[in-house]
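Entry 14. Ran structure prediction on the chain below.
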Amino acid sequence: MPFNQFTRRDFLQMTGAGLAAASLVGAQAESRPNVLFIAIDDLNDWVGFLGGHPNAKTPNLDRLAERSTVFTHAYCAAPLCNPSRAALMTGIQPARSGVYDNGMDWRKAPIFEKHPTLSKHFMNNGYSAIGSGKIFHGPYQDPSSWKEYWPSKEKNRPDDPMPPKTPWYGGKAARAHFDWGPLDIGENEMGDWKVTSWVIDQLNREHTQPFFLACGVFRPHLPWYVPKKYYDMHPLDEIELPPVNEKDLEDLSPLAHEIAEAGNDNKRIVGHGKWREAVQSYLACTSFADACVGRVLDALDASPHRDNTMIVLWSDHGWHLGEKLHWRKRTLWEEGTRNLLLFSGTGITPGQRCDTP
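Output, structure tokens:
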């Protein structure tokens, strides 16, 4: 099959079948590939190798792309954390599961009683499934899907430091969700840094079983608080705003208007002259997430597992930053649904791109 006709589904079936077959050969357990499974929350195509934004600085993701097969037109099952992650981790689309929103406990959907999660499937086939960070959506962890999880099987990530007063609310003390600003702290105080430190520890030790090691990076999810050095990488006066057609919503239905203008985000941010700051903040967070991924890649390359580990990196959906006069996700437009998907490792040709959706 020509590679330009090779779809993401074909690729997943091929690699999944290969891993499943390998897991049946008990005598060759030491040859079964490990899997490093990296998820990044709310990351759209604003990365260097996809060219989504001219100010993007993601050198570590870019070097991973050079050694990977990159799916340049990967799209999520749903443009929202919970349904997207439930679908990816089970193979069951929202239309079949009924899980459409973040407030639904996906584990209670009857269809999932018959379908193991991806990590559970690896466990059932002789792998040690361990992880840290956001893989399943926040409150809906699945303890049975993991042999070990840090900080615990019930809490997927440590808390992040927060500024004493949030900038968006005029200096009033509040824990605002849609907020941003540089923090005068060290990187090691951030939750994602602690998550990746734990993952690095797992890469540095010996394992008696092949491992499925999950690493969930939370940024660039809101709030956009990261150490100041990452803001300094993106000077405000150099920030380019995404192109926007001010009449983009004129041909939409009232319901579509309601979705696009949810929370009046665009009026609040653009109307208060904060658009450029918001774009800067998102870019700063993507650079921080990139640094976290870079730490893990360096640790893998220095570990004894380097030549026997497949890397899968994905993001759960896209993110709007004013395009279509919309912010956040929850839309079926390109900005809301396009996500990252890369595979790297033994048997996967590096430097290839699949442009087929």
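The mean pLDDT is 89. Will compare against last week's run tomorrow.
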